[in-house]
Specification:
Helix content: over 70%
Strand order of the largest sheet: 1-2
Distance between the termini: 52 Å
CATH class: Mainly Alpha
Largest sheet: 2 strands, antiparallel
Number of helices: 25
Number of strands: 2
Shape: globular
Radius of gyration: 23 Å
CATH superfamily: Sodium/glucose cotransporter
């Protein structure tokens, strides 16, 4: 990079630290201010922050890799997590259900659902432990991607027997920790808003460059990774690469790392089912923290809509980088071998000085915004659900804020250490979504919809699932993703059902309070019969609208993302169909969801 590029990056980093220091006083008064910003943040700031938090470097590098290697069809693989399809469910009903809970963490929610007795405490403890484990794994995932990306530009050497990627990610994490630890959610959200603006600017610039200066050849080569660590070039055509209709079967070599996607139709259906289960189950960590911090049901809906709309612009950026990578290989004869390195290579080789610094700063912003959100949310589970609940119930607010900062540092240190044993971004992402995710998903799903489920069932199901995920990672790390998900979630389901049926029911008064406060749909008849008819009629009308709206919201999000991506691909015939479909879905979503926001 040139001097001006380094200057831009330096100014960006200095701005982030400055914002963190500015909000330090606001965040230090108590843990409500540190983790929820006292529920005073506007919906647009929470939505912009959520978008920035989802745009991490690691995920962007994976998304570019799939589009580069598989064309537009690669989009559908990321239904597993990268498309963040859970936003459709959060937008329609799951966001407001969680906001109505009026808690700080998903673990604290367990006492609202299961009571404050032993079963509630047990569920809360297991939920907190599981969330902390997944937080450490996400920090590891972040650090691997950040190390690969930053190491490409700053030229950081290996030192002390540790690779350059480790030191590069350590530098990024240290800088992000300054404002994350200092200013809590205040700093996280407002730095994310600033970073979101920077990210959005870089997206527009790169898309403009790709559309005006680069064209796909009619026939060209791409490269895919092999299981032995090598790479293999494959010839494809522009028509096949830009086709939006996914094939039922891919003809990738059996010894390639992407051969697990050869049964492509089955993989997409599986990912769609898995993501829908996750959507109906809700989520935890930094994503649900935005809804706990929102001011009203209406704000929860609006922040979701804004978040999702902004997030759609990730995909034209991904497509633009992939197009530039292919064009670079075709023009120079040097096809980029590692799909996961297309992003940094394109920036290094094809982005002019000045713009390069802006883009590097924007992608560093994407990395830091993910990191700060994950760490801040993860620390809340230690402080609120373990330390204050089980270790020191008489802790002062000053002591709790100190624990918040200390736990943030410990989480990061463990995650950074684990990067020394993991090198592939896709590897750790697959385990996060199909291993740890599978271990948590069934108890998280059933808790909302089955009145009979109790805290013992949640604790046993979660414990069984997490143990199964860890054993799978250690014993059979190369198992196919769908088998991993099926086996781990099956073990978790068995533990949840047996744990529930073999232990006493949750107190009826607790269930009635929970139902009237959050208003979920599902198998709640014994509890619904205990409340007044008038109250239930209002709940029933809202539930019916939400169920119908969800069938519009899920395809609406997918079509929105594809529509914006196909502007960059310049496939205008396909674009016309996508725009028409998007309009129809938007009309349905408006009538069954949006126009009812104020009334609810």
């Amino acid at each position: 990079m040139s001097f001006i590029d380094y200057t831009i990056v330096f100014i960006y980093l200095l701005s982030m630290v400055g914002i963190g220091v500015y909000f330090q006083k606001k965040a230090s008064s108590n843990i409500d201010s540190y983790f929820l910003a006292n529920n005073k943040l506007p919906w647009w700031a929470l939505g912009a922050s959520g978008m920035a938090s989802n745009l991490d470097i690691s995920g962007t590098m994976i998304n570019v890799a799939f589009i580069y290697a598989l064309g537009a069809s690669g989009f559908f693989i990321e239904i597993r997590g990268g498309i963040v399809l859970i936003m459709a469910f959060l937008m329609v009903f799951m966001g407001k259900w969680n906001r109505r809970s009026k808690v700080m963490t998903m673990a604290e929610w367990m006492e609202l659902r299961f009571g404050s007795g032993f079963e509630g405490k047990l569920a809360r403890l297991l939920s907190a432990i599981a969330t902390l484990l997944s937080t450490v794994a996400i920090v590891t995932y972040f650090a691997i991607g950040a190390g690969k990306f930053v190491g490409e530009f700053l030229g950081i050497p290996s030192f002390g027997g540790l690779p350059s990627e480790f030191w590069a990610s350590s530098l990024m994490i240290f800088l992000a920790m300054i404002y994350t630890v200092t200013s809590g959610l205040y700093g996280v959200v407002w730095t994310d808003v600033f970073q979101g603006f920077l990210i959005f600017t870089t997206i527009i610039i790169i898309c403009f460059i790709a559309v005006t200066k680069f064209n796909l050849p009619e026939v060209f080569n791409i490269s895919i990774p092999m299981l032995d660590g090598s790479f293999k070039q494959i010839e494809t055509s522009k028509e096949a690469w830009t086709s939006v209709i996914p094939k039922w079967h891919l003809n990738l070599p059996a010894d390639s790392a992407y051969s697990i996607y050869n049964l492509f139709g089955i993989a997409i259906l599986f990912y769609l089912i898995k993501t829908s289960i996750e959507g109906y189950a809700g989520t935890g960590g930094y994503m649900i923290q935005r809804f706990f911090a929102s001011r009203s049901d209406r704000d929860a809906g609006l922040l979701s809509l804004f978040w999702t709309t902004l997030l759609a612009f990730r995909w034209p950026f991904v497509a633009a980088i992939a197009i530039m990578g292919i064009a670079y290989g075709a023009e120079t004869g040097n096809v980029i071998e590692d799909p996961e390195k297309v992003l940094p290579i394109v920036i290094n080789q094809l982005v002019p000085f000045g713009l390069k610094g802006l883009l590097v700063a924007g992608l560093m912003a994407a990395a830091m915004s993910t990191f700060d959100s994950v760490v801040n949310a993860g620390a809340s589970y230690w402080v609120k659900d373990i330390y204050h609940t089980f270790i020191n119930r008489n802790a002062t607010e000053k002591n709790l804020v100190f624990q918040s900062r200390l736990s943030s540092v410990v989480i990061v240190a463990i995650g950074l250490f684990l990067t020394l044993n993991i090198t592939s971004i896709n590897d750790i992402w697959g385990w996060l979504t199909m291993g740890i995710g599978a271990g948590l998903i069934i108890p998280l799903l059933i808790r909302w919809y089955w009145w009979r489920m109790n805290g013992y069932g949640f604790a046993i199901g979660t414990g069984a699932g997490m143990i199964a995920a860890i054993i799978q990672r250690l014993a059979v790390p190369n198992i196919e993703e769908y088998w991993s998900f099926i086996i781990i979630s099956g073990i978790s389901l068995l533990g949840t059902v047996l744990g529930t049926l073999l232990t006493p029911k949750t107190n009826e008064d607790t269930l009635i309070k929970f139902f009237k406060q959050t208003k979920p749909f599902g198998f709640w008849k014994p509890i619904r019969d205990k409340i007044e008819i008038k109250d239930y009629e209002e709940i029933r009308k809202e539930n019916r609208r939400d169920i119908i709206a969800t069938f519009f919201a899920v395809p609406w999000q997918l079509v929105l993302f594809l529509t914006i991506m196909f502007i960059v691909l310049q496939e205008y015939d396909t674009l016309i169909y996508l725009v028409g479909l998007l309009i129809l879905l938007s009309i349905g979503l408006y009538n069954f969801w949006f126009k009812h926001l104020d009334k609810e």
